[in-house]
Amino acid sequence: MWSVMLSLSLLTLSPTPSLWHFEGPLAYQAQQWIQGQYGESLTNHLFDESALQSHINSLERPTQVSQSSILQACVLNRLAMNDRNSCDLDSLLLKEASLGGHIFLYANVEGSRFMVKLLVEKLNEEPKLYEAQGDDLKSTGRQVIERAFGMGRYNITGIPKLSRVFVDGVEVGRGNGAYVVTAGEHTLKVTTPDYQDYNSKFTIKIGQKISEEVKLLSASAILETKILHEEELKALKVVLDDVELKPEQYHQSYEVPPGKHTILVTATDREPIKREFDLAPGETGKLVLNLQYDRAPWKIALNQPHEETKVGQQQISFRVQTQTLRAGAWQADIDGNTGGSDKIRAQTTSMNGFGFDVGFSWLLRDELGVGPMRLDVLGYNFEYFSDAEVSEELTLDNGSISTVQKVYELSSLSRHKIRLLWAGYQLPMWRVTPYFQTGLLWVYERGELSKGSSGTSGTVSNHNLRVGWELGVDVRLSSTWVVKASMVGDLWPGERTAVQTLIGGAYAFDAMHSPLL
Hints:
The protein is built from seven helices and 30 strands. The chain has helices spanning 27-37, 49-58, 65-79, 89-97, 137-148, 247-250, 297-303; strands spanning 3-7, 19-23, 46-47, 101-110, 113-122, 128-134, 151-157, 164-167, 170-174, 177-182, 184-191, 198-204, 209-213, 221-227, 237-240, 243-244, 254-256, 259-266, 273-279, 284-289, 314-328, 332-335, 342-344, 351-363, 373-397, 401-426, 432-450, 458-476, 481-491, 497-510.
């Protein structure tokens, strides 16, 4: 029994759509292969008997109902293998269904060889026979089909499965594959989501097979950003269209939708940069950004601690210093003189000397919310002075108020001061760190008097608890060597108030990385 197929495309296996017949032991396999192989390319689809009936019905016109009925009866009569001369099927098909010929395909296998014959009968033309033998049905059938109808195979690679392939404006399939096309010049178009359309032209000969690797270009635009001197920037932020980018994003090529965009780059102590740009699909935009200081560089440097200023949290320091002592309302016991015990109540002349300071301090963490606060856990000062004049004013009760002033020669004065838990703040600025500290201070003083105008000699001593403070500045020469200059005071109600000016060099290091260990 014959199977009947129909092609509806204008670019079909023959110039005018024809009626297909399949016969032979492998007729069914040949029909399935042709429908699958060529039906999804330029031939659109091949239909069986029911599709043919539907097509004929779609061509009915009110004025031709009788002729359409005759055509249907004639087709059914021919399909039933009744008398072939009962009606002129060719004329009816040409007139009513625009079918202009018959195509007979015979498929058989003999041993290991497949045989395919193709007979093309077109109206008003001589029949043409094409035949081939081969090792498999598909390759053998392909030879006769493509020779008979002037076709070649166009193989496409390199595109995703979702890509739509158009030849001469007609969609022929999706994704990579070998597409059957008629011989001649054609246009190719490939459309893929998120990629630019690909367009090209190609020319193919009968039976020729050519291949093309399609290289799709992204429909997205590409943004390449380079920030000069990035390693010097602090708190760097790159914001693209109100979205902050991570470093790994702006360090590499970054895909953006085509169109207008805005980029904003900010960093600490730098003037922000805001740029607007417009990118076409597939375009690569390159931005080179150089953030300038928002004020004079020396002002920036002053507010940023130098690398060598960043000492550890636990600092041990040793300072050798020169000093000047000024004091008033000072009182101390005088022992050892022949006239018995006495007190010196005032010191009017400054004393110069030297000494040293040893301290252990702890820098509190900023996350505690107290700022750059340093706690002087424990400290010891030794101060030595010499060669000064000390006076004492006395009021005598002799019936009239008068004063007598004695002058003593203080040959030496030693002061020992112990600090415990002094608290204060510091403000590192480049290599300079101003600071202020205050806390309790225990002081022990001992001096030697030589005979002066008062004719008195002996030992001066005093010890008491005082409130101390220090206002100064550190200038760090290196990571461990510091020059310190400060003013120090100690006071207590009813006692002498002492004020000292100090300057000296200090060796300071992190206790956790002590060079002494």
